Amino acid sequence: MSDLVRFSVSMPEALLEQLDGFAQRRGTNTNRSEVLRDLVREKLVDEGHVVPDEEVVGSITMVYDHHTPGLAARLDKIQHRHHTEIVSTMHVHLDDENCLEILAVRGQGRVVANMADCMLGLKGVRHGRLTCVATASTMAGQHVHHHH
Ligand code: NI
Fold first, then answer.
1. Ligand 1 centre distance from Cα of residue 100 (Å)
2. pLDDT at residue 112 in the model
3. How far is the CA of 86 from the centre of ligand 1 (A)?
4. What is the rounded CA–CA span in Å between residue 41 and residue 87?
5. Ligand 1 mean position, distance from CA 75 (Å)
6. Mean pLDDT of the chain
7. Residues 6+ apart with CB under 8 A from 60
8. Inter-residue contact 70 to 123 (CB < 8 Å)
9. For residue 107, which phi and psi values (nearest 5 degrees)?
10. How many other β-carbons are positioned within 10 Å of the β-carbon of residue 103?
11. pTM for the predicted model, two decimal places
């Protein structure tokens, strides 16, 4: 095993409680450091599907509070700026304050990842996730349709 480096982390108490709850539900190991290491590894594996120089396809899913001042306008602006990467959008008004938005995306990995970061980092976005695969690996070895 490689050397472990110790560093301190600050997070809101409520988030830490959620982390402990998650660790307990998982059951296998409730050690905070171990749980955090696993989460970071999982996240990095997800990010690994974004190949910066290749075309990727995927989706961005987010839940946001539409009462947050300026948020809807900011999201709108980012999405218009990336109209070539956003293939389709679905918007669901979940309840009085929450919106669910699912975007189908396609474009250069780096561009898609930056776009997702811009949106998911905004204040008022409660949950967000980019899931994607490189089209080259998706299509590899599959039957190819020829259109005449
Ligand atoms: Ni809505």
1. 7
2. 94
3. 18
4. 30
5. 12
6. 86
7. 101, 102, 103, 105, 115, 116, 119, 120, 128, 129, 130, 131
8. no
9. 165, -175
10. 24
11. 0.66
Type of residue numbered 135: T
- The Cα angle at residue 47 between residues 108 and 77, in degrees rounded to 5: 55
pLDDT tens digits, one per residue of 100-124: 999 999 999 999 999 999 999 999 9
Amino acid sitting at position 89: T
Cα-based distances in Å from 94 to 7, 89, 100, 101, 121? 39, 15, 6, 10, 21
- How far, in Å, is the centroid of ligand 1 from the Cα of 72? 9
**Euclidean distance between CA atoms 142 and 49, whole angstroms:** 19
| Token duo for residue 63 | 């839940």
Span 5-17, average pLDDT:
92
